[in-house]
Amino acid sequence: MKRLFIFLLLFVYCLGSSAQMKKRQVEYDITKDRVLYTVGISHLDTEWRWGYTTTIDTYLKNTMLENFKHYGTHYWDIDGNKVKKNLDGDDSRVIMDRVLPFIDDNVAQENPFIAVVWFHTPHKPCVAGPKHKAMYPDQDLEMQNYAGCITAMDEQIGRLREHLEAIKADKNTMVWFCSDNGPETGVGVSGGFRDRKRSLYEGGVRVPGILVWPEKIKMSMETDFPAVTSDYLPTIADAVGISSDKLKYEIDGISLLPMLEGKMTERSKPIGLCIGNQLSLNADKYKMYAVGGEVEYYDIVNDPYETTPLLETKDLKKMTTEMNKMLDSYKGSFQGKEYGTESYQKMEQEWKTSGLK
């Protein structure tokens, strides 16, 4: 039986909406170099930062030590140990250096595999190396760093795809790519969609998504079908012939395989999100948004920029009931109902989101 190699590719910071793809490189802003040059200072227990690593000498030349702000993050291996080696240079390359050997090992043994790769680029703080910064001589220092980091990440994605082709694992490998949220406050563009990162209006959650799967998708296609990363698991399970009722846990998403095959045009299950005191439920044509218990409804198909709230109707009111049901499920998962309490206790956080009346 032919094995399916699966590769999930995500990065942590949104570039903005797909409508602004060509404008992005000249409209972004990033943090100042005072914070950026705080990488690779081992005696301060900071092995890495997002972007390009530097040395204590470079750091001291660019800022006073008392301005140092520890970001509190590191690389860890599979056993939870802090990684100390091969951390110089561009961050995306450092990450991809770990990905390719993992793929090679599994392909050599004909093992199906899944690799989830979280690029830090272009999350703040952003520092490009000299090579990539020099590619943007007409931009200011901030944009040279920002665009340079994105270019360096793009090179590593190209490196990945070339490597898959070289080892003849490209045809039956799914490569997914997406961002996790809208543009950060003060930087980036949202393509006209309302609000930005940390908001559940469309500007905070609607981002481009890309899937490359040569064995299944023969021709390029574009869709406005609403999807979410929760759809990854049921889609992959469907692709390898595992029915949803065989999966161990409750599944929030749906399989996108019928959509890719042209057999599905509407979601069978809404997309529910929550953060702090915000809630949202996207049910294909209509969307419910709530903050602090105040509820708004939008025709998200005809009003994607959420400019005109709809008057509440009996049918729209049902969305609040559906949201409360999903919220109870999320809370149960968060507190260990499905997966145990080890992660919950490690996070040392309490559930804060309340349901709707």
Structure description:
The chain is α/β, with parallel strands linked by helices. It folds into two domains: 218 residues, Alkaline Phosphatase, subunit A; 88 residues, 2-Layer Sandwich (Arylsulfatase, C-terminal domain), CATH 3.30.1120. The chain has a four-stranded mixed beta sheet with strand order 2-1-3-4, covered by helices on one side. Strand 7 and strand 8 form a beta hairpin. Helix 3 runs parallel beside helix 5. The longest helix is centred in the middle third of the chain and has 26 residues. The protein is globular. 30% of the residues are buried. About 16% of the residues have low confidence.
Fold topology:
Layout: E1 5-11, H1 33-36, H2 56-62, H3 91-108, E2 116-119, H4 130-133, H5 141-166, E3 173-178, H6 202-205, E4 209-212, H7 232-239, H8 257-260, E5 271-275, E6 278-283, E7 286-291, E8 294-299, H9 314-334, H10 342-347
Parallel strand pairs: 1-2, 1-3
Antiparallel strand pairs: 3-4, 5-6, 6-7, 7-8
Helix pairs in contact: 3-5
How many strand elements? 8
The residue fraction in helices comes out at 25-40%
User: For the record, what CATH class of the largest domain applies?
Assistant: Alpha Beta
Number of domains: 2
**Which architecture of the largest domain per CATH?**
3-Layer(aba) Sandwich
* CATH fold description of the largest domain: Alkaline Phosphatase, subunit A
**Percent range for β-strand residues:** 5-15%
How many DSSP helices?
A: 10
Please list the strands of the largest sheet in the order they lie side by side: 2-1-3-4
